[in-house]
Amino acid sequence: MLDRVGCRCVSSLFPDVNALGNFLSQNQQPGDRGFYRGWWIAAACFVMAFYAWGIGFYGHGFYIVALGHATDWPITTLSAGVASFWLANVAGSLLLGRLIDRYGTRPAILYGTLAMASGCFGLAAIDTGFLASPWQLLAIFALMGTAYPGLSAMAISASLIPWFKRRLGLALGIGLTGASVGGAVMPPLMNILTAANGFSATMTVIGCALLLSALPIVAFVVRAPQKGEAEREAVESTAGDSRASSPSLRLFLSDTRFWLITVASMLSLGAQVGFLMHQIPLLQGSLGLSGAAIAAGLAAASGAVGRFVLGLLSARFPLATLAAGCYLIQGFGLLLILIGETPLLLYAASAIAGCVIGCITMLPPLLLVDSFGAKGYGTAYGATGAAMFAMGSLATAASGWLFDVTGDYQVPLRIMLALHLAAILIILWHGRKSRAQR
């Protein structure tokens, strides 16, 4: 009974319940009994992604506007605060990646939850006068930045990889769909709550909600499979001593495939982060604050569809080809925003650019596991994630600086488009090299 209820709960997170349920049933092997525990892990990852992206990714555009209204700090200063978030991700990814390889994902998720909630409470202090200097803002965003890898793609993918092989793409699609839901819900919700109760009260409530939702996941849900639990996915458990013998970072750094994956992921995520961190202020002039928040939510919501589609296609088509297609789609959306003038076109462009938001996040884990396997994954993704977050930090800060210099976002958008085009060429090179080695 409990298993059936759990299945309905997971299925209710998606618009096409029957299709998802039928797909899971059709892919169940003879002899499988009950609801596979790996899907409970995927559901828990959905909750983690909801808060990681809702607070620590899509929320930044709102923070720039809200903090700009509460202070007289220029866009450059506020963008630097957001950039410190992404820069701190570099250290967080490297340290938490090794921690995950050695001790599993629970300690990383616990740290991510506590640090992200503390960052929310720190931002809430803006109305009390405690948050009065730019350096304090940078410190708060940096704390949240170190937390982000413990709740986002690295911890989520590392939690799912021990449980899935045949359906890893689908499991990642389910877990990371929480990112799209968080992005669709959080910016409009924060806007509404702030208008009604103030920014300080809003951030306090969100921090408390994160603690109440994520701490039970750490305590009761996420764990590595015990012997025999993951047999239906034909994957061995990575628990216990195998973590201590994981490959070193030097081994990955000596492989050209690792660099091609990392550089392509870095460029594409830099372009995406540069856009998303400034999407609300970018569109505010044409759509107003409420309209810009809706456009941000629309981009996030369309990402849920794209992520689920990628999860289904990942087992059927070469990952490098899928990655190139995703980069091309988001580049086209940015081009429409660059030339768009009417609200309808800007909303459509946001949806197009947004439909692969989650795909660009999903692709690095899939590419790394496809090329190197599961052993040492935390270390590999930690290094790739560090490069991605460094680029995200640079793109966010540079976009704010270019806005202050030029007075608009035309130049930053052109640079983001160029980054996607470069990422397409690099990931296709990786695909060609991988085929040659097989």
Topology:
Blueprint: H1 2-11, H2 17-26, H3 37-56, H4 59-70, H5 75-103, H6 106-124, H7 134-147, H8 153-160, H9 168-197, H10 199-221, H11 249-253, H12 256-276, H13 279-313, H14 319-339, H15 343-354, H16 357-372, H17 377-406, H18 410-437
Helix pairs in contact: 3-8, 3-9, 3-10, 4-5, 4-13, 5-7, 5-17, 6-7, 6-10, 8-9, 9-10, 9-13, 9-16, 12-16, 12-17, 12-18, 13-15, 13-16, 14-15, 14-16, 14-18, 16-17, 17-18
The CATH architecture name reads Up-down Bundle
Helix percent reads over 70%
CATH superfamily: MFS general substrate transporter like domains
Structural category is: mainly alpha
Concise description?
The protein has helices at 2-11, 17-26, 37-56, 59-70, 75-103, 106-124, 134-147, 153-160, 168-197, 199-221, 249-253, 256-276, 279-313, 319-339, 343-354, 357-372, 377-406, 410-437.
Describe the structure.
The chain is mostly helical. The protein has one domain (36-224, 245-437): Growth Hormone, Chain: A (Up-down Bundle), CATH 1.20.1250. Helix content is 78%, strand content 0%. It contains 18 helices and no strands. The chain has helices spanning 2-11, 17-26, 37-56, 59-70, 75-103, 106-124, 134-147, 153-160, 168-197, 199-221, 249-253, 256-276, 279-313, 319-339, 343-354, 357-372, 377-406, 410-437. The model is unreliable at 1-32 and 236-244 (pLDDT under 50).
